[in-house]
Design brief:
Length: 476
C-alpha cells in the first residue's frame, strides 16, 4: 500500500511539474480560426485609420513618399542617410547614377547611442547624432570640396524608426517613443528641424535633411526601385512594423492636406497614384478594454515593466526587443521548483534574443550545445535533459507565435490590397527575420496554410532602411 501511494505521489508530482508547461502550450498555440479573426479585424482597423486620425488602433500614417512614375527618376549624385533604428545609429553615403544604380558600394559607420541620451533632452540627443555625422564626414573630405565648387548642399534622408505624424516629406512630429526611449522636449517639434540643428551645431553646414521616413518605408523603397513587384516593406527585428503602397484616393484623411493636393495637381496624377502608408501595426488592439489580442500573463508582465504600458501590444508579442523577456517569464513560471534556474530567471534581461536564436539551432540528440550555452551565458548548469528540452520548447513556442502573428498582419495587408493570388514581393529587414532559425519557414507556412497565400516572395532587404532613405532623398 505504501509503495502504491509513493508511486501515485510521484506521478502527481510529475503532473504538477508539467502543468506550467501545458499552460504555456495552450497560451502560445493560436488556432487558425482565431488567426483569421485577427486578420479580418486588422483589415477593418486599416480602413478606419485611412479615413481619420485617431479612429481605430492603427495610425495608418501617410509617408508622403509617392510611387515614382519611372525607375531612376533622374536621381544621380551623392546622398547621405542617417538611420536611427533604436540605440544603434548608422550614417551612410551612397553615390548613384541617374538610374539609381550605385557607382560604388555604400560606405557607412555604426554608432551606439549611450543610454543617458534615452532620457536626456531632444537637443542633446540630436546634437550627439550630429556629432556622429561629423565623425563620418571626416572620411569623405571630397564631398566638402564638391559642395564648395557647386554651391549645392548634399541631400540627406533620415530614417527615424519610431511612430510619427507626418505632414510632409520633411515635416514630422513624434507620436510616441518606443524601444526604451524617453527623451524629453519632442512635443510639437519638427524632427527634421531638430536633426538639422544637431548637425549644424557640430559645424557641418553642407548637409540638408530633405526627407524623413520610417525604417519600413526605407526598406520598401530600397527594393522597389529595382523590383516593381515589391508591395510591402516589413521590419522584423528589435521592433516590428510594416508599410505598403496604397492608392492616394483611398487615404481619405489626406483630402484636407492643401500642400499635397497642390503637388498632385502639379504632377497631373490620376486616381491610381500610390503613396507608401506606414501602418504602425504594433499598436493593433491597444485601445482600452480591447481583447482582440489574447495576451498571456507573461505578456502582461512584459507590458507592465515597459516604458509604454498598454500600448504597442502587438509589437510586444512579436518583436525581438521583447522575445527574450517573454521566454524568461515563461521559464520563471515553469521552473519554480528548480531553485537554480528559477533564481536566474528573476534577473531582468538575462535571456537575450540572441540566446533564443542559438538555442533554436541545437538539433543534437541530447541538446549538449544548449547545456554548454546556458553554462557560458547564464552561469547555470542544466544537467537534466528534460529541462533542456523544455527550455528549447519554450523558445520554439515564443518564436512560432511571433511568426504566426507577423504572417497574419502581412496577410491582412495582402488581402486588403487584393494581392493574395498574384506574384508579389515583401521586402523584409531585421535580425529576427534574418537570423532566428525557423522564423521564415513559419511565416511562409502560416500564409500558405491559414490564408491560402502562395504567390508571395519574401526577400531580405539587408540594411534597406538606410539605403532606402538615401534613395528617398535622391528622388525628393
Amino acid at each position: 500500500m505504501d509503495k502504491r501511494v509513493a508511486i501515485l505521489s510521484s506521478h502527481l508530482s510529475d503532473v504538477d511539474a508539467m502543468l506550467p508547461v501545458l499552460r504555456a502550450r495552450q497560451f502560445f498555440n493560436l488556432s487558425d480560426s482565431y488567426l483569421r479573426y485577427i486578420q479580418l479585424y486588422m483589415e477593418g482597423e486599416m480602413e478606419k485609420g485611412l479615413k481619420q486620425d485617431g479612429y481605430g488602433t492603427l495610425p495608418m500614417l501617410p509617408s508622403f513618399v509617392l510611387k515614382p512614375q519611372s525607375n531612376g527618376h533622374n536621381m544621380g549624385g551623392v546622398f547621405y542617410a542617417i538611420d536611427m533604428g533604436g540605440t544603434n545609429l548608422r550614417v551612410l553615403r551612397i553615390e548613384i547614377d541617374r538610374n539609381g544604380s550605385a557607382l560604388a558600394p555604400p560606405t557607412q559607420l555604426t554608432f551606439h547611442i549611450p543610454v543617458r541620451y534615452l532620457s536626456d533632452t531632444a537637443q542633446e540627443l540630436f546634437k550627439f547624432i550630429g556629432k556622429c555625422v561629423a565623425a563620418f564626414t571626416q572620411s569623405h573630405p571630397g564631398d566638402v570640396e564638391n559642395v564648395e565648387k557647386t554651391g549645392k548642399p548634399i541631400s540627406v534622408g533620415f530614417t527615424f524608426s519610431f511612430p510619427t505624424i507626418q505632414k510632409g516629406l520633411a515635416v514630422a512630429q513624434l507620436l510616441t517613443w518606443t524601444k526604451g526611449f524617453k527623451t524629453t522636449g519632442m512635443e510639437g517639434a519638427n524632427i527634421v528641424t531638430l536633426l538639422q540643428k544637431g548637425i549644424e551645431a557640430n559645424d557641418i553646414k553642407y548637409l540638408r535633411v530633405v526627407a524623413l521616413c520610417n525604417d519600413t518605408v526605407g526598406t520598401l523603397i530600397a527594393k522597389f526601385l529595382f523590383d516593381p513587384s515589391v508591395h510591402i516593406g516589413c521590419i522584423l527585428g528589435t521592433g516590428s512594423n510594416a508599410c505598403y503602397w496604397e492608392k492616394v484616393s483611398n487615404i481619405k484623411k489626406l483630402s484636407l492636406n492643401a500642400e499635397l493636393q497642390k503637388e498632385l495637381n502639379a504632377r497631373k496624377m490620376d486616381d491610381n497614384l500610390e503613396m507608401v502608408v506606414n501602418i504602425e501595426w504594433g499598436n493593433l488592439g491597444s485601445d482600452a478594454g480591447n481583447t482582440i489580442l489574447k495576451t498571456t500573463p507573461y505578456d502582461q508582465h512584459v507590458d507592465n515593466i515597459s516604458c509604454n504600458p498598454g500600448r504597442q501590444r502587438l509589437e510586444k508579442m512579436i518583436s525581438g526587443y521583447y522575445i527574450g523577456e517573454l521566454v524568461r517569464y515563461v521559464l520563471r513560471d515553469i521552473f519554480r521548483g528548480n531553485p537554480t534556474i528559477w533564481h536566474k530567471m528573476q534577473q531582468k534581461d538575462c535571456f537575450p534574443p540572441v540566446l533564443v536564436s542559438r538555442i533554436l539551432t541545437d538539433e543534437s540528440a541530447k541538446l549538449r550545445w544548449i547545456h554548454l550555452w546556458l553554462n557560458e551565458e547564464l552561469d547555470i548548469n542544466v544537467e537534466d535533459l528534460e529541462d533542456r528540452r523544455i527550455i528549447k520548447e519554450v523558445c520554439v513556442m515564443v518564436r512560432n507565435r511571433s511568426a504566426t502573428l507577423s504572417a497574419t498582419a502581412l496577410a491582412s495587408i495582402l488581402k486588403r490590397s487584393r494581392h493574395c493570388h498574384e506574384h508579389v514581393t515583401i521586402a523584409v529587414d531585421g535580425s529576427v527575420y534574418e537570423k532566428m532559425p525557423g522564423y521564415k519557414t513559419k511565416l511562409y507556412e502560416t500564409m500558405r496554410d491559414v490564408y491560402c497565400i502562395k504567390g508571395v516572395n519574401l526577400t531580405l532587404s539587408k540594411d534597406g532602411s538606410g539605403i532606402g532613405a538615401a534613395y528617398i532623398a535622391a528622388i525628393s
